[in-house]
Amino acid sequence: MSFKKSVLASAVALGLMSVAAGAMAQKVVTGGATLPQGLYTSILPVGPNFSYTGTGSGTGKSAVLNNNSTPFGATNRTVPMAASDVVITSTEDTNYAAAHITAPATPADNWGPMLQMPSVGTSVTIPFNKTTTAGAAQALNFRGTLSNSVPDLGDVCAIFSGATNDWSQIPGSNRSGPITVLYRGEGSGTSALLGNFLNAACAAEGSTSNLKGGVWTTDTQTFAQQFVNNTVPSNFVSVTGSAGMRDAVFTAQGRIGYVGPDVIPTADLADATKYAQLRGFSPTIANTQLAIAAAPVPTNANAGTRSAWLPNFGVPSNGYAIAGFTSWVVSQCFTGTDTNDTVATMTTFLNDLYDGDFDATITADNFVPLSTEWKNAVKSTFLSNTSGRGMNVANSTVCNGIGKPLQ
To answer: Which residues belong to any copy of the PBP domain (predicted)?
Structure first.
């Protein structure tokens, strides 16, 4: 699917779902992360089966953890699943367990465990708009080895922390003039993935840094919260949404930002005069796959941990340097009469996803399908229980008499 066709298809799908929402109740009410929103509106069965509302990862997690369908445009509906680019935090796990597993207020509040499984792999690209001092478009590659003569990952760190604010401060860039850093003003999984990379790639800057504690923090969805007093440097400008970021970068010289791959024409991913290389790798699908491949499939020893299924990639050992998984957060247990056929509809979609039915669409939207090994691990753990781990949806032993109420 071409970039323009993908955008059009997503828009049509969103329109169809809005019409359907007014006409009848969907079987599955869901939403959350905006990074994969275009993809999900392409592959989720539209109309009476699914509705997907892009709210951001944090709101999506909250909706499924609290069974609150209001952010997804529905009233008094079960939220069986939501999309998130960031892992469920230990605090979220603790609060959920206290309310719905270990100490529920009533037996009806015992909803059972909350699952989280990777969906697809993604990159976070670095779009920039700056010609050389001679006025020419020139590729920009931030090397992996620190250097005083060519751009390197240390320069990426300095740009996004505000320590570097002029292109002339980047050795060997052949550019000069003010740097304008664009950042997502709203909570964004893309911001969190960028922060995870910067946390691993950037040395602590010390007490004079603009950053809180002089370091980047992981899984922080609101970019401004990385900075002292939640205040970004004066050369930073807020934008909203992935498309908003992409468009804003290319409206004026000197700008640089970060954006997911889905809103970028596929050919442009390899154009280092628009999207920077990191360690010599452009954010192409193949190079992102190299990075994703470094993540080991969970084993029996660690399958019960969130980080095994949603690892922080930091700086991958190979391939494009800013990569990660986006995920589905899914309730394991349900109770009551399923008049909307919610659970069966959800599990059918998930089985299709991990059977590879949507791989062509995933690739066309510049995301990376999970490897066969990862797909099999997800299916055997969360859908079929052939792993014997007892973590599958509707496990009869775990869910005996408990679950999130269906409505």
So the answer is: 50-331
